[in-house]
């Protein structure tokens, strides 16, 4: 990266000292990750921020919903900064609050809402987490989705799973023994979700029609192709991938699981990894004794994650040095309260 920008970022961090804490999501660019005080997935990062109450400024190198979660979990005196406000998440954007409220109204009209528990993936806006908290539901991550769903099915008979259809389906079918027919896909752009009242009444799992534009790109062909090219390769994918991809993979898990698996892998082993490319490239560089490759031949970064680059980070830090808090992310107190309820419910999950 540009030596002048590296020097400026270093100087700004030094000037701010313990007042600033920089969080770097695993999918961030190398030029940004080098300045992260801690790296992790969105949930780990939000908790790290909350565990540092002395850090007045949390600079979140990640996407918007992650900065919101950090604002919800940190104290009122801590301020969360997102270096580029355009760093959103296409998956989180696929579930807007009015759409989810509409879907709930459909379930109310059918008389099944009181038996339905909403569960939302961490990758959703604070508004959606707040909705879920208001309706007795829970947040989940890709590492505790099964436990969250097991809890939800103790509270009710049906789950409305937001916003990632793939995480919901993969968890229900591959980890909980549901059949594909137990799941229906609710399309927010169609009246009634594009489903008949019978389908909505019978389904145990109502999956929101959302997906990750990065993980959704891996196909069964990507898996077959790499197995042909690299005999003995282990295919390791994130549960945001399509069902047929996860089904064909050898191992599936969260980013933290992917990192631990690669770290523990024997020298000489070969791995095709189906997750964001910045992380896969860093894993390959860190483990030259293992053969680590991207699952697909095409390059796929998360374009919104990549909006946070070194110039944006330098700008955000230098603003703080100048006494200005630019790009602060705040969640209104009422939404934050209910979102916190759903997050705390996740923290209270057994196991
Ligand atoms: O796909 C993502 O954006 C992930 C893995 C987010 C997260 O929870 O860290
Ligand atoms: Fe959203 Fe997918 Fe990017 Fe993660 S990788 S921030 S889920 S678009």
Summarize, please.
This protein is of the alpha/beta class and 351 residues long. It is built from 16 helices and 14 strands.
Can you offer a commentary on this structure?
InterPro entries: NadA, NadA_sf, Quinolinate_synth_A_type3. [4Fe-4S] cluster binds at residues 89, 212, 302. Pfam families: NadA. It is a single chain. The protein has 351 residues and is of the alpha/beta class. The protein folds into 3 domains: 3-88 and 305-334, Rossmann fold; 92-211, Rossmann fold (3-Layer(aba) Sandwich), CATH 3.40.50; 215-294, Rossmann fold (3-Layer(aba) Sandwich). The chain is 44% helix and 16% strand. It is built from 16 helices and 14 strands. It has helices at residues 3-16, 30-33, 42-50, 64-73, 90-93, 97-109, 126-134, 145-155, 165-176, 197-202, 220-229, 243-248, 255-264, 277-286, 310-321, 333-347; strands spanning 20-25, 38-40, 57-61, 79-81, 116-121, 138-140, 158-162, 183-186, 205-208, 234-237, 251-252, 270-274, 291-294, 328-329. The strands form 3 sheets. Strands 2-1-3-4-14 form a 5-stranded mixed sheet, with helices on both faces. Helix 7 crosses helix 16 (333-347). It is globular. The N and C termini lie far apart (43 Å).
The SSE string, one letter per element, is HEHEHEHEHHEHEHEHEHEHEHEHEHEHEH
The distinct bound ligands, ions and cofactors come out as: (~{Z})-2-methylbut-2-enedioic acid, iron/sulfur cluster
CATH fold group of the largest domain: Rossmann fold
Q: Compute the gyration radius: what is it?
A: 21 Å
- Structural class of the secondary structure composition? alpha/beta
Residue-averaged pLDDT, rounded? Answer: 97
* Main beta sheet strand tally, sense and closure: 5 strands, mixed
- The end-to-end distance, rounded to whole angstroms, is 43 Å
Total count of strands: 14
Organism: Micromonospora endophytica
GO molecular function: 4 iron, 4 sulfur cluster binding; metal ion binding; quinolinate synthetase A activity
Function: Catalyzes the condensation of iminoaspartate with dihydroxyacetone phosphate to form quinolinate.
Catalytic activity: iminosuccinate + dihydroxyacetone phosphate = quinolinate + phosphate + 2 H2O + H(+)
């Amino acid at each position: 990266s540009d030596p002048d920008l590296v020097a400026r970022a270093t100087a700004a961090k030094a000037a701010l000292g313990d007042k600033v804490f920089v969080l770097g999501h695993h999918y961030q660019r190398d030029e940004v990750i080098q300045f992260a005080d801690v790296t992790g997935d969105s949930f780990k990062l939000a908790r790290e921020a909350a565990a540092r109450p002395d850090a007045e400024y949390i600079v979140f190198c990640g996407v918007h919903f992650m900065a919101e979660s950090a604002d919800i979990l940190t104290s009122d005196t801590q301020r969360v900064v997102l270096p580029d406000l355009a760093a959103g998440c296409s998956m989180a954007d696929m579930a807007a609050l009015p759409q989810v409220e509409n879907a709930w109204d459909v379930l109310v009209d059918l008389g099944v809402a009181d038996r339905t528990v909403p569960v939302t993936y961490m990758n959703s806006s604070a508004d959606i987490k707040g909705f879920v908290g208001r309706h007795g539901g829970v947040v989940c991550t890709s590492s505790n989705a099964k436990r969250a769903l097991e809890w939800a099915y103790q509270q009710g008979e049906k789950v409305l799973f937001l916003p990632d259809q793939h995480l919901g389906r993969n968890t229900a079918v591959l980890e909980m023994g549901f059949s594909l027919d137990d799941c229906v896909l609710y399309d927010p752009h169609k009246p009634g979700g594009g489903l008949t009242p019978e389908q909505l009444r019978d389904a145990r799992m109502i999956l929101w029609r959302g997906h990750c534009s990065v993980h959704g790109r891996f196909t069964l062909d990507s898996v077959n192709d790499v197995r042909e090219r690299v005999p003995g390769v282990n295919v390791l994918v994130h549960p945001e991938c399509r069902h047929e991809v996860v089904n064909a993979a050898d191992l599936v898990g969260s980013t933290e699981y992917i990192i631990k698996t690669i770290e523990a892998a024997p020298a000489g082993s070969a791995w095709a990894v189906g997750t964001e490319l910045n992380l896969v490239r860093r894993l390959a560089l860190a483990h030259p004794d293992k053969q680590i490759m991207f699952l697909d031949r095409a390059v796929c970064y998360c374009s919104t994650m990549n909006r946070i680059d070194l110039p944006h980070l330098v700008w955000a830090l230098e603003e703080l040095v100048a006494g200005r808090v630019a790009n602060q992310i705040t969640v209104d107190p009422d939404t934050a309260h209910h979102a916190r309820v759903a997050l705390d419910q996740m923290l209270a999950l057994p196991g």
